[in-house]
Structures are given as structure tokens and as C-alpha cells.
What does this fold into?
Amino acid sequence: MNIKARTVGRGQHGTARWATRGEIARTYAQVDFTPERWREGRDLPDKQGIVVGCKNRKHTTTALVDTGDVHAIMIGAAGVGKTAYWLYPCLEYALASGMSFLSTDTKGDVFRNYAGIAKDCYGYRVSVIDLRNPTKSDGFNLLHLVNKYADLYKQEGKEGQCFPSVPTIARQTKLSEATVHRAIKDLEKEGFLYVTGRQRPNGADSSNLYTLTDAEPGW
It folds into this structure.
């Protein structure tokens, strides 16, 4: 094949270019990156996604967050800061916005640096799956929460309704109350649950009434 006879590089032009400021503003959510406040439970972001960049000012940092259903790959030589300057900000944002995630961690750095933050500041349950020595893995069934909700549905009501308290759900699912609150919020947002407040005869708040819908998952 005579490569020189091809027109590549002879008048052909690709379409790749740098995005304009306006295109960046329209494409990515711009969120104040304030982990010190997030870890105190304040100003938590309501948009979930991947941090793809940032804008720095004198005293503030604004994260550019891709909220689409995307895949990303970070390529860089050893020591350029892939973990510290991209992975850790993405993990912090995932924790603050209530995302569930699985992370490979061949050297154990992610666990050492973020397991404590995830548990103590954001109420996450952190489990380790050791593929080299499974006996050292945490006993954790990824479908445990689904099974427990299904059991509650079967036991509590024939109309797809039940009213367990958040501490009860947390105890039965072995999750933190913060995680349960996030799960209920997500299920309600996606249309799988109706949440109705209830009161006792004396006017005090009682546990919510949860009604399952017929919504089909969009996976």
C-alpha cells in the first residue's frame, strides 16, 4: 500500500478543537468545591457526576462536573498526579453527592486515605474485596439491600406499603442511617417509592409510610 498516495495530511482537517467558555458553561455543571464544608454536612452538592476540571480563583475552586452517563479514562506517566489531582477530587465529590462506587486499589492508597473520610464524614459503609485472598474480604452481599426491601414488602403489607423507621431499616440492612436516607431519596426521585409523612394521635411525627410503585427500572 502506497501510504504517500493517501490524502491524510494533504488538505484534510479534523473537527477536534478546544471548547469555548460558553460551550464549557453549557456542558458542565459548575459546583463550588468545598470539601471542608461537605465533611461537616453543609452545602452538599445535588448533582452527581465526574469532576473533569476546575476553575481556580483567589479563595475558591469551582469544579466542572460532567453529569451525563459517561465513561472516562485518565492517562498519565507515573508521578504526574493522577491519583491526587483527579481521582481523590472525584472520590470526594462522589461521597458528597451520595454516589455508590467501586474502586480498584492495588496499593491500598485509596483505602488508607479515604476509607475513614467516607465512614466518619459521609456515613458510608466501606467494604474490601480482596481477590488474592478472599478470606480477608469483608462479608458483604451487594444485593443485601435489595433482598431486605423485598422481604419488608412481603411481610409488612399486601398493598405494597410499609412504615419501618429509618433506624429499623438501617439495623436490618446493616447500613448507616445516612446511607438509608440517601437510598430512600434516590428511590423516591426515580419514582420507585412514594413517601408519605405520618403522625401519632398526639401530633408527634411518626415513621414515614412507603408505597412501592409499578415503575420499571431504566437500566
